[in-house]
Model the fold of this input.
Amino acid sequence: MPYRTTTCGSCPAPIIWARTPAGKRMPVDAEPTPDGNVTLVPPLESYDSPLAVVSSERDPSSTRYTSHFATCPNADSHRRSH
Done:
């Protein structure tokens, strides 16, 4: 399923906005990668974001993605201090 993409606000990379099981928004690199640890579950409604499921298990039959927080050169500017 092709997901709606947009561009990262900090770099020119194409991303997919997904949501975590906790309901938080998560930017995911738009291109799948074999070393990714994120699986996207299609949304139930066409206007919803896909669900981002993070797992260390490597299922060769699933398409894997990477969190854009791990690849964005400007990710530190988006981190919240605790």
Remarks:
- Residues 6-72 form one domain.
